[in-house]
Amino acid sequence: MFGELDYMIRYEKGSFQSGYCIVEHRNIVVINKFFDTEARVNCLLDILSSLNVDPARLSEKSRELFAKWEKEQVQRTKDSHSG
After folding, report:
1. N or C, fewer C-beta in 10 Å, the chain?
2. C-alpha–C-alpha distance, residues 51 and 78, integer Å
């Protein structure tokens, strides 16, 4: 999905406070290479939520995944406000 949005993902060591950084003008995402798979996925999801994603740029499969993820985000927000 990030590739379809013209973002390059790199895994490197660094002292990122959030575990990742985004080089905005170059569309590069740098994730701490020492993170396990789950932490890497969580970083990518955090980044995805901060991007202005145009679903029209995504393949059909990615659009479906993105729509499902967005729906889950909305539900989590509702659940956190009601509890």
Report:
1. C
2. 21
Q: What does the pLDDT look like over 3-48, one tens digit per residue? A: 999 999 999 987 777 778 888 788 999 999 999 999 999 999 999 9
What does the alpha-carbon distance between residue 58 and residue 52 come to, in Å, rounded to a whole number? Answer: 13
Polymer length in residues for the chain: 83
What is the biggest distance separating any 2 CA atoms in the chain, rounded to whole angstroms?
40
Residue 32 and residue 44: Cα distance in Å, rounded?
11
- Sign of the C-alpha dihedral computed for residues 54, 58, 63 and 66 taken in this order: negative
Task: Dump strand ranges (E) for the chain.
Answer: 8-12, 20-23, 28-32
- Global pTM reads 0.77
Residue type present at position 53: V
